[in-house]
Write a structure and sequence with these properties.
single chain, two-stranded antiparallel ribbon, globular
Length: 71
């Protein structure tokens, strides 16, 4: 993939890390659909971040132990 094609494939910017990524949610197919996130995690991410997160950040956050104080 050329640099120009890679840039064209980026349609979102992650609010957590600032990295660019392609969000396919509007196309009904996004890599994040494969992640198993709890309702509490989804709600927390919605409170903490404005917009979609990249797959790398979602995986990092998903792997974190839950904090009962904030859930």
């Amino acid at each position: 993939m050329s640099e120009e094609e890679a840039r064209a494939d980026v349609n979102s910017r992650c609010p957590r890390c600032g990295g660019g990524f392609h969000c396919g949610a509007a196309e009904a197919r996004c890599d994040c659909f494969e992640l198993r996130l709890s309702d509490a995690q989804r709600q927390q991410f919605s409170r903490d971040y404005n917009g979609c997160l990249c797959l790398k950040c979602l995986r990092e956050l998903q792997a974190r132990p839950r904090d009962p104080q904030t859930d």
